[in-house]
Amino acid sequence: MNVILQCPVEVSAVPALANQRPLVLVPFLGQTVLEHALAGLAAEGAKRVRIEGTEPVEEIRQVVGQGEAWGIKIVFSQDAPPAGEWSDARVVKLNALPQLPQQPLWGSYRDWYAAQLALLPVVAAQRVGMREVAPGVFVGHRTQVAGDATLIGPCWIGANVFIGPKATVGPGSIIEDGSYIDGGAEIVGSVVGPQTYVGAFTELRDSFAWGNRLLHLGTGSLTEVTDCFLLGPVQSESKLVDGLRSAVRFLGRQLPFKSSPPAPRPMPGTQSPS
Question: CB–CB of 238/178 below 8 Å?
Answer without folding.
Answer: no
